[in-house]
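PROTOCOL LOG
Step 1. Enter all chains and additional molecules of the complex.
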Amino acid sequence: MRAPDLVLLYLLRRGLRCWVLVRLGLAVAFVATMSSPLAAGGLVGLGVIGLSLTVALLEVQRVRERAVLANLGVSLPTLLCALSFAAVVGEILLAVFVP
Amino acid sequence: MSVEPVLVADCVSRTFGDRRVLSAASLRAVPGEVRTLLGRSGAGKSTLMRIAAGWMAPDGGIVRMDGEARLRWRPSVLARLGVFYLPDSGALSTALSIGAQLAMMAERFPGGDSPTEALERLGVAQHAATRPHLLSGGEQHRAELASIFVRRPRVLLADEPLRGIAPIDQERILQAFRALAADGCAVVVTGHDVAALLDSADHVTWCTSGTTYELGAPQDALAHHGFSSEYLGKSPRLGPQRRV
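Step 2. Run joint prediction.
Step 3. Record the structure below.
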């Protein structure tokens, strides 16, 4: 069996971390406004995905990160897909399983 | 017989706001050679390196890789063709250990040294599990060099790799550049440590007033009146102890 791609795993982990951070921040904001901290679906989901991807992209635009990814030959489409994957899957799961 | 350059930034220009940093500047990376790009701060050396590495688009001019000319290359495309860019602020992420980053490089581009071999070669094997920003400047630079030996690029663009590190580390880094060039890599290095750079370079390019001059071998550069009077000044370190 082929071992998982280390670069891809690294990017997926970074995307997951950013999504969790954004979700935690939003949960606090939702609780403060008496809403469900796990509110999902529709515009909220899209907003969270967009925000998570933005945070992740800002992180990897720092010079050192950018150099690592560029020297590894990571293309922009791969970067966008890998960094947003966790947010997309997470939001779908929340929309399906959280009432 | 002259060797054809593998990467060429040809007649590039770049303006930031009202300030024209580069106009008709060129950079050539030639296999088997260590080329040094020298010039005062603000002369445009780093801008020229970024353009050659695909990190920045020029306003004019072209970048040719393996004979294919484009106004701008994507860094990832150049990397896959064998270009490795070492920016002055570091080329390893602070988010992962050095060993993990070298393992990614080895997996993506097999054929170079193994991460362990490379770290041992540069004397930083004991720091494989450490994140780069926790090391001293010299150790960080050596760890970055280890990643280059894992990658074994065809072209290395190193922007000020000797800045702020001890002479012993500078010597080690320059030896590593020579070793890469001996294996056919085209090395281009910038910096202000003129004596050390001239000592290990095969060719000098002078960047001044937004353009570049190919001065040739270090002894020819030292004999160049404009380069000596406008850039070197009266540096006593460029005297008889030079290797050339």
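Step 4. Note key features.
Chain A has a mean pLDDT of 88.
Chain A touches chain B through 19 residues (CB under 8 Å).
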